[in-house]
User: What shape does this take?
Amino acid sequence: MPIKKYNPTSAGRRNSSVDAFKDITKFEPEKSLIFFRASNGGRNNTGKITVRHRGGGARRYTRTVDFVSNKFDVPATVAAIEYDPARGARLALLEYPDGTKAYMIAPNNVAVGAVLMSSQQAIEPIDGNRMPLKFIPVGITVHNVELKPLQGGKMVRGAGNGAQFMAVENNMATLRMPSGEVRMVSADCSATIGQVSNPDHNLVRVGKAGRMRHMGFRPTVRGKVMNPVDHPHGGGEGRNSIGMKYPKTPWGKHALGVKTRNKKKSSSVFIIARRSKKK
Assistant: This one.
């Protein structure tokens, strides 16, 4: 969707941009599909920080998104396109003939009034329809892909993302993920046709620290500007290098470009090609 820029009236405005929200048709969430989840500030149940640089932020309601779409063969009408503060993609509010409502991740180019359907059989492959991969035409773009049948979509849910459906063989579907990784999933897993909405989300420039605080991110400080007691990279005079054989985390483990995936992970057999390296 369009990105809005302001006149550079201040240092923060000069390099920032915001979403224009021109695709939003309903500005208040559906009350029956929201709940409040208190922020834990990156702390676990004992109060220790397990995820750094989290805390504060604007209070927001959590939307209940239906990633399974298990009301099969029942047409649903898109009643509204809504904003979700917890994700970059838009949400589509679906209304079923029996009066029930549900949120789904809105596909790109799906407008209010569109009729969508989820099925376990082959249906028309239009943007927003959902069905098992074995019924989807090869070469088409999909999102909200399951890892196990009827588990609910786990992959390809970010704004503007889409996976290319490449082949089906021996009841296994091959997908090219947005990262460039080529992997297989069961052909019985369902996926939604089309690309995820709001593809311009990655073009928004936050521009200033205050907006990051509103989003719930606390400041991040480089290790090399700390004291030796606080970080392995700390200490020294002036702008020195880290002075070590390899970069480390605050707890002494390898950092910066180290592969963190477990080599013995069971799902590794389904990965045909690892993701592309950044140039």
Summary: The chain is about 5% helix and 25% strand. The longest strand covers residues 76-82. The helical segments are 11-14, 209-214.
